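**Fold tokens**
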Amino acid sequence: MFREPGADDAGLMITLRVDNTVHDFDTWFEVFNRYEDFRRGSGVRSYRVVRAADDPRQVRVDLDFDDLATATAFRGALAKIWATPASRDQLAGHREPVVLDLVVQRTLG
């Protein structure tokens, strides 16, 4: 696997990126929060939720995992979440989740 020379490899992880279009961010986020225990129990180490500054209906969730197998398994579990009535009501659409391999992470400053 490629790693930039001199890069700090500590804490490098696999990220599952999910892009959603939601009807209303605040209501979607309430539903998202209901799955905190599910994420923890499924191997999610950390996550970030961001939205487009000019369109808060465009939401990206990056979920970090220790390994590819766990991230891939979680990607499959998302179908079950998206099938729930609460999720179906909140999602206007979503892209197929993408598994990303963090190559370089550097803090400047």
